Amino acid sequence: MNSFTINGPGVLRGSISVPGDKSISHRAVILGAIAQGRTKIKGLLESEDVLSTVNALRNMGVKIDHHKDEGMLIEGVGLYGLKDPGQPLNMGNSGTAMRLMAGVLAGQSFPSTLVGDDSLSQRPMGRVVEPLLALGADISVQNSGYPPIQIKPVNQLKGADYVMPVASAQVKSAFLLAALCADGASRVKEPEQTRDHTERMLRGFGHTISKQGDWIRVVGGKELVGAKVMVPGDLSSAAFFIVGAAITVESQIILKNVGVNPTRTGVIEILQKMGASIDCLNQNTICGEPTADLMVNSTPLRGVKIETHQVARAIDEFPILSIAAACARGITTLQGAEELRVKESDRIRSIVSGLNGLGVSVEERPDGYSVTGGEILPGAVNCRSDHRIAMAFAIAGLVVSGSIIIKDTVNVRTSFPGFVELAASMGMQIKEQVGPHRG
Ligand code: S3P
Fold first, then answer.
1. Contact 321/333 with Cβ under 8 angstroms?
2. Could you tell me if 349 and 383 are in contact, meaning their C-beta atoms sit under 8 angstroms apart?
3. Whole-angstrom Cα distance, residue 177 to residue 89?
4. Domains plus CATH for the chain?
5. How many CB atoms lie within 10 A of CB 15?
6. Please, what is the angle between helix 266-273 and helix 318-326, to 10°?
7. Is 279 helix (H, G, I), strand (E, B) or coil?
8. Which long-range contacts (CB under 8 A, 24 or more apart) does 328-331 make?
9. Residue 381 burial (10 A CB sphere; 0-12, 13-18, 19+)
10. pLDDT confidence of 324, banded at 50, 70, 90?
11. Are the C-beta atoms of residues 186 and 210 closer than 8 Å to each other?
């Protein structure tokens, strides 16, 4: 039950690098493990979520070692080289780890079971079972759609077409990973473009993956070739400091080498529409992923209507965007985001109760929220073990005359190890207390 105490008001200043992108890190480790030959990953996010993926692959016989100078080295075993782990694979708090690994395991010749922590055990897995059944996998979930996931070996997965009912990069990726072991071609179509890191990285590992109109197509049976991967900084982690600098007078920060893949930049577009000053400098493409240094200066923000087509491209940033909304003049509305209810916590609930507790006027909708900008008051927030809720409300502490206490922050390490130290290095008055909060 760790907690954060933030004393405000504050200012952010400095030039920093945020840790590596979580989505790209999971994919780099997975593709490295099932490729043939060696993969070298620089900038890998070594957070608890990514370590769940690393440990699962180690338990299936893959050699993955951290080298001081070279980064993470993986000796790939090929598409069919994983070994029976002989025990359930624990994916901790990570939905990405569980869903992507389900795709990897669907075509293997041994049975497997995927389990997770309390939060992950309450997240829907039927959405990943359906597309894998379409490929001929023998996969099931107990407890009406929730983990554990059970997978049994089948003779051969068969290529198939699948139309996704929910916009989810995790589901799309699980399908594509399983399709690598299927006989023939497979295609998947998504209702809304989601992050495309899997598609980009498959190309980097030598696989041909093509677009046919709205369909994404892969042909199974072809081995991947080990690659060198450089992981850019995580825009979802950078977003906390982008908002922190935007809402505090006289802040100026530079966030170096951040991933700005257009399937992820909804948060930048929404904040710019709110009036934020965010400049993308030194734009580059590294290992197929666009990157930039982001310079942020404080400016007054105004409330906006967030468009539904922006939701999938900003899906992890609505906790921190709600803090920007609370500091903006006018009303900010979000709709079409019911997916937030099945993240690490019910994020609509967590945001609404957190803001209410700090005196902000907010209306809860089934598929979003409506926040009226005003003053954020000192107080306490229970982040319900959700890392992004914890960090979002910590940033709110920058504009408070007094202190904010965030309870239950231990899961921040699932995505952003070093958050407290990095925030403090830019001038934030933040302290972490280990163990239950007293006083
Ligand atoms: C992720 C996809 C998103 C996102 C999650 C990471 C990924 O989830 O919320 O944090 O790496 O594919 P969905 O694809 O389920 O929306």
1. no
2. no
3. 18
4. 3-20+232-433 (3.65.10.10), 22-230 (3.65.10.10)
5. 12
6. 10
7. strand
8. 328/274, 328/275, 328/301, 328/302, 328/303, 328/304, 328/373, 329/300, 329/301, 329/302, 329/303, 329/373, 330/302, 330/303, 330/372, 330/373, 331/303, 331/370, 331/371, 331/372, 331/373
9. buried
10. very high
11. no
pLDDT of 438:
61
By C-alpha distance, which of 183, 113, 100 is closest to 153? 113
pTM: 0.98
Q: Are 127 and 115 in contact (CB under 8 A)?
A: no
Q: Given the CA of residue 23, which atom of ligand 1 is nearest to it?
A: 11
Cα separation, 101 vs 85, in Å, equals 13
Q: Is 350 in the pocket of ligand 1 (CB under 6 A)?
A: no
Count of alpha carbons within 13 Å of 88, Cβ hemisphere only? 13
DSSP structure class, residue 73: E
Q: How confident is the model at residue 439 (pLDDT cuts 50, 70, 90)?
A: low
Amino acid at position 337, single letter:
A
Q: Considering only CA atoms, which residue is closest to atom 11 of ligand 1?
A: 23
Which pLDDT score, from 0 to 100, does residue 1 have?
81
Q: What's the rounded mean pLDDT across residues 90-108?
A: 98
Which of 197, 315, 414 to mutate for ligand 1's pocket (most ligand atoms within 8 Å of CB)?
315
Q: Tell whether the model's pLDDT for residue 22 goes beyond 70.
A: yes
Calpha distance 431→250 (Å, rounded): 23
- Residue 413 has a pLDDT of 97
Element (H, E) at 239: helix 235-247
- For residue 195 and ligand 1, the question of a CB distance below 6 A is answered with yes
Which ligand 1 atom is at minimum distance from the Cα of 312? 16
Please choose, from the candidates 380, 359, 377, the residue with its C-alpha nearest in 3D space to the C-alpha of residue 433.
380
pLDDT value for 340: 98
Active site residues: 316
